[in-house]
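Renewal narrative, Specific Aim 1. Our central claim is that a sequence can be written position by position from structural information alone. The example that follows is taken directly from our test logs and has not been curated for this report. It begins with the structure tokens describing the chain, in the order in which they were read.
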């Protein structure tokens, strides 16, 4: 599929896509949408920034139009409030006048408006598991008419301990439904969801989900603790686009954002102890350009989709390799280019090498002045083969029919 106009969808949805400026599908959209429109369960894995949200919203819109009956027809479960808000916003931007607004069901916001949206005829709920389970326990929502369940960022939900809640929610949903699962990685915990809640799913996989996008230049700065802020200021002063800076702790995020503002940088911050209104204001200001810099914990490594983030800076090393991938995935999205810089101390050399070995990459070593250092002797042939730079992707796709009528779609370099 080279154009959305080739999809077997209604003229109304075609018009809404055209109005929103969507014409050429991403690979995951081209592979997943036709299968979803055919009513099949879909299990999709792809790197961040590849358009997974639209891959399930288009089939949902078509379902809602074809079966125009009262009641909740579609449920999208996501791990964070920010991601829920963005999914609901994208649906509302696309739906037009023939579809009712999505109901947002999340913690941290007043429940009154959420319940009003459901009672006013919302047919799509976008929810985080905790608040939805609370509504179900209080019998404030029912899913007798449900046709479609989507688990978005499934691996992240399981990382956050939502599996018991997901199981309890799924137990009250109609068994005769379509289920779509979108995930950045396919670990054993996600496979359990497939076995328990999906029927012969079509498997859609694109690219390596354990490596940064080829559109992102990854570089590393060995910096002592006393110089980290100076090097950060230098990088931010050079960069004209939006920058996302990751710190490991909530307190570190606070200190860093306050320091940046004192130094004249327009910076906002997000972490788990901020109220929802503070988090929403920070993200909106970053999206709208009032803040050029957003300082965040790993809360923002998934669940925020801000266009044109030019530079991701790991002020602190992530605790696990997977978090590095999701942090870096905030830039170089939708075919754009980006830069990811990582700071590490002399005593963290082994941690950085372990991170590189786990991911099969080699970061460019940079001096504190931002110049590329000479190649060091620790560079192995294996790492050299896997160095990530800003060259264009050279991937080709292939589609293979697997046993049990499962369609395997993979990207090969």
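The sequence written for that structure reads:
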């Amino acid at each position: 599929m080279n154009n959305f106009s080739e999809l077997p969808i209604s003229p109304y949805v075609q018009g809404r896509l055209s109005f929103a400026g969507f014409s050429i599908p991403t690979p995951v959209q081209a592979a997943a949408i036709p299968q979803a429109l055919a009513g099949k369960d879909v299990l999709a894995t792809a790197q961040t920034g590849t358009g997974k949200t639209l891959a399930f919203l288009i089939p949902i819109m078509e379902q809602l139009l074809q079966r125009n009956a009262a009641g909740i027809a579609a449920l999208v479960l996501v791990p964070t409030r920010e991601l829920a808000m963005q999914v609901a916003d994208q649906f509302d931007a696309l739906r037009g006048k023939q579809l009712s607004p999505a109901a947002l069901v999340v913690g941290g916001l007043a429940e009154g408006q959420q319940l009003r949206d459901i009672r006013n005829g919302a047919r799509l709920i976008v929810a985080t598991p905790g608040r939805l389970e609370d509504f179900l326990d209080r019998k404030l929502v029912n899913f007798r008419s449900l046709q479609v369940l989507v688990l978005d960022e499934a691996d992240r939900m399981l990382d956050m301990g939502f599996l018991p809640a997901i199981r309890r929610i799924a137990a009250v949903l109609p068994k005769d439904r379509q289920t779509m699962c979108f995930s950045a990685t396919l670990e054993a915990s996600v496979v359990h969801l497939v076995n328990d809640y999906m029927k012969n799913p079509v498997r859609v996989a694109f690219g390596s989900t354990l490596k940064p996008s080829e559109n992102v230049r990854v570089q590393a700065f060995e910096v002592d603790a006393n110089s980290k802020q100076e090097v950060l200021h230098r990088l931010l002063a050079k960069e004209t686009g939006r920058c996302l800076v990751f710190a490991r702790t909530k307190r570190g995020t606070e200190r860093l954002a306050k320091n940046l503002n004192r130094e004249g940088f327009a910076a906002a911050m997000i972490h788990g102890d901020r109220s929802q209104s503070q988090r929403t204001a920070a993200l909106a200001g970053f999206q709208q350009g009032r803040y050029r810099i957003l300082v965040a914990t790993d809360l923002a490594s998934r669940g925020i989709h801000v266009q044109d983030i030019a530079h991701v800076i790991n002020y602190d090393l992530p605790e696990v390799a997977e978090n590095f991938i999701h942090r870096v995935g905030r830039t170089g999205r939708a075919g754009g280019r980006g830069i990811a810089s990582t700071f590490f101390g002399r005593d963290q050399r082994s941690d950085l090498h372990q991170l590189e070995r786990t991911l099969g990459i080699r970061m460019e070593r940079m001096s504190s002045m931002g110049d590329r250092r000479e190649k060091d002797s620790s560079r192995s042939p294996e790492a050299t083969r896997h160095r990530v730079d800003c060259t264009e992707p050279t991937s080709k796709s292939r589609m293979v029919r697997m046993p049990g009528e499962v369609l395997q779609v993979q990207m090969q370099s």
